[in-house]
Amino acid sequence: MFASRDTELSSVSIKSSAILEEGGLYSGSRGFTNVTVNAPKGTTLTLRNLKLNKLKTVTDCEVVYDDNTIINYAYTNAPTELYGYGQINRLYCNSDGVYYDARPLYVETARGCAAPSRRSNSNSGSGSGSGSSSTDKKVTLHSISDQYLDIGEKKIVGIDHNGSSLKVTTSNASVAKVTYSNSKSHITMTGVKPGRATIKVTSSRSGYTSRTVSFEIVVKDTSGSKLQLSGISDKKMEEGSVRYISVNTNASRIKLSNSNSNVAQVTADGFQLKVRAIKAGTTTVKVTASPLGLYLQEHHFPSDCL
After folding, report:
1. pTM, entire model
2. Cα(204)–Cα(279) distance, rounded to whole angstroms?
């Protein structure tokens, strides 16, 4: 089951083996929120790229979650195998037979139950001499293109990362007011006066090495001037692959059109595009930027799925 755009599924009950995945959600959309596994013994639930509020297991099962998944609360009321190196913030263990690969940040065990433990063979097959551990991993944080603002103009830019916390700093708060949201993973910026400010974004996560990217905010008085919209090169992708593309423009907003959504799914979070290749073919994506007071600009780029 795939959740995107404005999808919100507040309560999902799993009755058989399933895969839940999120991608291309609009800012403010929540996707999957609370998931309960109540299925026959041996059921496997796979989680991909989720920011889940609550996971509850009622029956003996396996939960496989990728590095991009964050689970806020996990309640294991039955034997549960937790496979993966994503992040579980709080684990409440109410059953014997609970095992994990990556230790949750907080663990609470009910009276009379065996404490959950790390799977002893979780790293088997990786090579005994590699010396690798979860602390060798780095947070994924994609680059953010420079942003152009008019005085008084407000813009929201999404931050594509798999960390659990963000820190954003500015070199010149007098040029642009900058705030950010951990829960929505975006930056809100407002032009104050002409000038430049360098913004540093740091994404952190327990057990991972933090990562920082920088970009510039340029504030101009562009009344009556021509809008800036940089070209985007053609993209060739394999089926099932995902690519993130930053749109460099001084517009306050952009619009998208996609000639063939059966070939590729294209969504925008602020000024970052997410392209998911679906099947073989070619589609043309049109990016249109047209803020008040500036001339209309459009750019087209084909996306080929191989």
Report:
1. 0.41
2. 35
